[in-house]
Amino acid sequence: MTRCPPLYALALAAALALPLAAQAQQAPPPAGQRTFPEAAQRGTLKIMNGTSAELNGKPIRLAPGLRIFTPQNALVFAHTLAGKSLKVNYVIEASTGMLHTAWILTEAEAKQPRKGSGATVTNIRTGT
Prior knowledge:
Elements: H1 6-24, E1 41-47, E2 52-55, E3 58-69, E4 75-76, E5 85-92, E6 99-104, H2 107-111
Parallel strand pairs: 3-6
Antiparallel strand pairs: 1-2, 1-5, 2-3, 3-4, 5-6
């Protein structure tokens, strides 16, 4: 029985791994800049207690696995923010309608337009 020489096996393994390595080489965001999912919207969050909050002035329940990130991208517990009004990007859990993830924004991040921010984001022109 003949076997593949080790050189062929290495070449085959390298050829199979090349597409995976190319896919994994996505450029990271610049230092200090966070990226948010496309589904994230902008709003004002006010935590009432451990299970409820107001999002843009409307009541919303907090998901059991709620993650709130500070501007430094550290996790913070919801009860430590009780009573504070915060400018956030947020994601609502589709199946339950509960608040799933929120990012407390820096001033620079809050100036960037995003859905729900009240800023006009469109590519439609009127007139000539």
